Amino acid sequence: MSEITPPLILIADDDKITRMVLRQAMEQEGYQVVEAIDGESCLAIFSRLRPDVVLLDAIMPIMDGFACCARIQQLQGATQTPVLMITGLEDQDSVDQAFTAGAVDYITKPIHWAVLRQRVRRLIQQVRLYRQLEEANSKLQRLATVDGLTQIANRRRFDEYLEHEWQRMMRERLPLSLILGDIDCFKLYNDTYGHQAGDDCLRKVAQVMQMAAKRAIDLSARYGGEEFAVILPHTEQSGAIQVADDIRVGVKGLEIAHASSKVAQAVTISLGVATTIPSQASSPEMLIMAADQALYQAKAAGRDRYCT
Ligand code: GH3
Ligand code: MG
Ligand code: MG
Ligand code: MG
C-alpha cells in the first residue's frame, strides 16, 4: 500500500466547543487537524503549514473570517487551498461577502454534519487533483525548456528568450549582447576519452556558463551539441566581453585533461561576441549570425579566445 499523508484541515473558530466538535468530525474522517482561535492566528498557521482545506468561522476577534479569507487568497497565489466558511450568519450580505472574499463554499450553523463531511471530501478531491495537474504542468514546462544532459536552458528556451528580449530592448532602446561558445577540438576529446567523458565535460562547461551569466535576466543555454550561448540583455559590448572572458578562463580553470587537443593540454572554449541595439531593420537571426562569425574568427585565430 502506498503511504499517503492524510489531508490537513485548518479549523479557525473563536468558540472552543465548535472547534472541538469540528475536530472530532474531521479526525473521524482520517484527517489531520490544526486549530486557530482567531483570524490572525489562522493566517499565521496557514502560511506556515499550507493546509489542504480551511474551515473558517465568520465572526472572530482581531480579524474576522471575511478579512481572513481575503488575506488567504492574497497569500496563497496559485496554491488554491479552498476556504469553507462555517457561520451562524444566514443573511444574503454575509453570504455575498464570503464568496467575494474568495470562499468556495458556505455552511450555516447548526452544522449538518453529513453535508459538511461530503463537502470537505469533495474539496479535498478537488485540491489534490488541482495540485497534481499543477505538478504535471510544471514538469512538462521543465521538459520543454531545460536540456536533459546539462540541465541548463535548451535551444527552444533560448529562441523564445532571445525573441522576448529582442522586443524588450527594442522598446527600451538598449543594447542586447549575445555570446556563442564552442568547445575546442571536442571531437578529438570524444575520440580520446569516450562519449561518456564527453558528456561529463559538457555538464561541467554548462555549469561555467551558468555561473558566468550572473544576473537574473541573463540566460545561458545549450545551443547545440557542444555549443553554448549566453543572452545578455541591457549589456554593452564591453560587459559582454567580460562575461566571455570569464567563461574562457572558467573552462580552462576546470583543468579537464585533453591530451589530443591542438590548443592546450586541457579542454578550452572559443567564443564569439555580438552586440546591437535591436531595431526593425535587423533581427535576432542577424545577431546570431554576427556572434557566429566572431566565433569562427576566434577558431581561425587559434581557439581558446573570444572575438567580436
Ligand atoms: P572545433 O575546435 O573546430 O570546434 O572542433 P570540434 O571537434 O569541437 O568540432 P566538431 O563540430 O567537428 O565536433 C563536435 C563534436 O561534438 C562532434 C560530436 O560528436 C560532439 N558532440 C556533440 N554533441 C555531443 C554530446 O551530446 N555528447 C558528446 N559526448 N559529444 C557530443
Ligand atoms: Mg465566531
Ligand atoms: Mg561545434
Ligand atoms: Mg567544437
**Contiguous helical run count:** 10
Structural class: alpha/beta
Query: What is the helix/strand order?
Result: EHEHEHEHEHHEHHEEHEHE
Quaternary structure classification:
single chain
Named once each, the bound ligands are: 3'-deoxy-guanosine-5'-triphosphate, magnesium ion
**How is the main sheet built?**
5 strands, parallel
Average pLDDT taken over every residue: 95
Terminal Cα span: 61 Å
Main sheet: which strands, in order across? 2-1-3-4-5
Shape type? elongated
What's the alpha carbon Rg, rounded to whole Å?
29 Å
Tell me the β content: 15-25%
Helix content: 40-55%
Number of strands: 10
Task: Please mark out the parts with pLDDT under 50 across 5 or more consecutive residues, or reply none.
Answer: none
Summarize the topology.
Layout: E1 8-12, H1 16-28, E2 32-36, H2 39-49, E3 53-56, H3 65-76, E4 83-87, H4 92-100, E5 105-108, H5 113-145, H6 155-172, E6 176-183, H7 186-193, H8 195-212, E7 219-222, E8 227-233, H9 237-253, E9 269-276, H10 284-300, E10 306-307
Parallel strand pairs: 1-2, 1-3, 3-4, 4-5, 9-10
Antiparallel strand pairs: 6-8, 6-9, 7-8
Helix pairs in contact: 2-3, 7-8, 8-9
The structure holds 3'-deoxy-guanosine-5'-triphosphate (GH3) and magnesium ion (3 copies).
The site of 3'-deoxy-guanosine-5'-triphosphate (GH3) has 17 residues, from strand 6, helix 7 and helix 8.
